[in-house]
Amino acid sequence: MRADVLVVGGGLGGVAAALAAARAGRSVILTEEFDWLGGQLTSQAVPPDEHSWIEQFGATASYRALRAGIRDYYRRHYPLTERSRGWTDLNPGAGWVSRLCHEPRVAVAVIEEMLAPYRGSGRLTVLQPYRPVAVATDGDRVVGVTVAHRDRDDRIEITAPYTLDATETGELLPLSGTEYVTGFESREQTGEPSAPAEAQPMNMQAVSVCFALDHVAGDHTIDRPAGYDFWRDYKPDFWGDRLLSWKSPHPRTLEIVERSFTPNPDDDPWAVNADQRVNPGDGNLWTFRRIAARRNFLDGTYASDITLVNWPMIDYFEAPVIDVPNAAWHLSKARELSYSVLYWLQTEAPRPDGGAGFPGLRLRGDVTGSADGLAQAPYIREARRIRAEYTVVEQDLSLAVRGEHGAVSYPDSVGVGMYRIDLHPSTGGDNYIDVGSCPFEIPLGALIPQRMENLLPAGKNIGTTHITNGSYRLHPVEWNVGEVAGLLADFCLARGESPRAVRNTPRLLADFSDRVTAAGVEPRWPRIAGY
């Protein structure tokens, strides 16, 4: 098969890249290994992690269209109460982590709606479920990618002038011999205040296998997981208690805090203030990442709220799942941990009334679209990262370093983002690293590999460090990166120039910046303060 642009990986970055290139008139092939497009928003089942100003600014126009489409889908297809139907900033789940907590299948439907005209016209071909297994190169160029079907013996060789790596872990980088980094860089390499003295390439953030729950009458206890005894007794040195407990370190202070858990609290969805500046929202884990609040819907529609479990105790930080020979085994152990957390919740978790266990908790695999009840894919926080022309470092955006000056403003900015530098416990035994951030920009130089000419990152694999990945890995930034990668491939095809030339030639950079802005990408922030 052949196309103008090949996008490998159908997460948020891949979808945005394919959409941008197809809108520009390019033929596009998009591949994805899981059953749903959308990555962390859908197959990984993570409600959007967004900044406090997302309803006003700080995201691309197409990302706004995705968010608006999700709300409109609920209004068109769900029996909302009259009050909720008229709620401009409808939060279907009334979760505290985001102003738009929703069921992942809705995002899948909206993504398919956005791509539908390009699939119908033949401009976009989606190969699903396919994963990359080989890359052919000629010097500093990718000349072909081979993808294999997930479930049968079927391989397809694809050629394209531009190949975009939008996989969750940067799979094309080792396959193509592209130079990349994993884990912690050293303080000597980056000058970052939070970096260790020596580089730790195998020290990476935890992965998590999320799942959805409701709470209804009856006993819905799952079979006891094979490894339950290990996980029930497991006590990380820095945790303050067993991993399976209501206690864990506070990400910002590292103080050991105890969270509550009250299913179906019958709270008012409109009273939820999902603003991370004011409240991280994780006091009651039930409402933290709730994706369906039954009081948003007509009586009887939902027997229970639905909550999404992406909580501290499901973080698997025993070993990395990138560049290790037993990655599949560790991913299976991460799934075992999630099942063990569920079994603990159903049988042993302390209740407010002094009892133990919530047998009414019911696993909702129908909500996550999986036969085994968990999310289709693991939530990957940290990918392989290209060695880029420009690498974003902590001192570029740290609130403690930059203060009232704000984040570094890049002459080649192609987007914006905002999130605290939020690193979960890592495979090297590190606790949370959580650093205040300034609203930041996305430099084009972070999307340009130091050597490869026609391979572009389109997700979490851009030129960040282990530290700054903690800010650049979230939903709206991943989408922005992918969209710009798609626009850059189109621009280079139209001009007959390389991505490197676009960045380093003032005239071309000015023209591309105009193109990006015209597409609805915000290259600068208004004057606001960080948190």
TrEMBL record:
Q: Which domain of life is it from?
A: Bacteria
Where would you find the membrane-spanning parts of this chain?
A: none
Give the matching Gene3D superfamilies. Answer: FAD/NAD(P)-binding domain
Listed name of the protein: FAD-dependent oxidoreductase
High-level lineage: Bacteria, Bacillati, Actinomycetota, Actinomycetes, Micromonosporales
